[in-house]
Amino acid sequence: LSTAHVSQETAKLLENSKISITVYPKGDYGWFIYLDDEVMDEMTKNTSIPKDLITIAKLAHKNKCTWVCLDRDGRITENLPTYKW
Hints:
This protein is an alpha+beta fold and about 80 residues long. The chain has three helices and three strands; from the N terminus they run H-E-E-H-H-E. It starts with 7 loop residues before the first helix and ends in a 14-residue tail after the last strand.
């Protein structure tokens, strides 16, 4: 998915590993995010997880995805909000 689906504030948190989930940098622009059932449960209870990231995680979980790749050249989907930054 495109990094346009996260706000600039969320991108900074992902970049600086300031979110309590498993996130790996993807080259210069983007991240790989691990989302198993346990992580999903934790994310929905943790109020420090940004809402835009939770929305992405819920869509991924609904589609039975364990990993999400966010990339600046990734696909923009109409199922998620976008942010300009």
